[in-house]
Amino acid sequence: MTEPAYLTATRAAYDTVAESYASTLRDHLAGAVFDRAMLDAFAGSVDGDGGGPVVEVGCGPGRITGYLHSLGLDVSGVDLSPAMIDVARRACPGVSFSVGSMTALSVSDGVLAGVVAWYSIIHMPPSVLPEVFAEFRRVLRPGGRLLLAFQVGDEVVRVEQAYGHSGLAVDAYRLAPELISGLLADAGFAVEATLVREPVASVPPEKTPQAYLIATVA
């Protein structure tokens, strides 16, 4: 079956920027108070439910996976980009990483305690998100938790330059929290917490508000 063009474009872009992306964002969490707060809340919720395996989908160079691992979670990472997975394996040698797509996870039904998609659904066309959320629902056990992070808006941005590289051609979708909450409900989730914060002058600088959602299998 022919791979959708958006997956091919996303893989190509992140293979190109993998090393510079990892270098730029390596220490980002240290100053990201709200990011850590939501990650900590997610980890505490999973632990409070007895723990279990967690997968970060779209894990990139493994910085979020590594942070969750440092909190004691049984976490692994999956990413579409082989170059990103190579970086992640070097950065977090004690964590399992594999190449794969969030649209078809190599995970059995109902086995995960948690799924994290940290700024990774942003490259999925909104029309595909019901399929993606259904896949997240499939692999989560009853009561399992999902953490999403994404930029807020209602537009698509064509990314042609990023992290010191030009010649890219990948779309990034800004998303409304209300839209995502509704799609999650349709997929069998109940949203437990939503945080929207204003953009900050980070590196790279943010241009839109940022949203974080924690949901549980209803």
UniProtKB/TrEMBL annotation:
<feature type="domain" description="Methyltransferase">
    <location>
        <begin position="54"/>
        <end position="144"/>
    </location>
</feature>
<dbReference type="GO" id="GO:0008168">
    <property type="term" value="F:methyltransferase activity"/>
</dbReference>
<dbReference type="InterPro" id="IPR029063">
    <property type="entry name" value="SAM-dependent_MTases_sf"/>
</dbReference>
<keyword id="KW-0830">Ubiquinone</keyword>
<protein>
    <submittedName>
        <fullName>Ubiquinone/menaquinone biosynthesis C-methylase UbiE</fullName>
    </submittedName>
</protein>
<keyword id="KW-0489">Methyltransferase</keyword>
<dbReference type="GO" id="GO:0032259">
    <property type="term" value="P:methylation"/>
</dbReference>
<dbReference type="Pfam" id="PF13649">
    <property type="entry name" value="Methyltransf_25"/>
</dbReference>
<keyword id="KW-0808">Transferase</keyword>
<dbReference type="InterPro" id="IPR041698">
    <property type="entry name" value="Methyltransf_25"/>
</dbReference>
<dbReference type="InterPro" id="IPR050508">
    <property type="entry name" value="Methyltransf_Superfamily"/>
</dbReference>
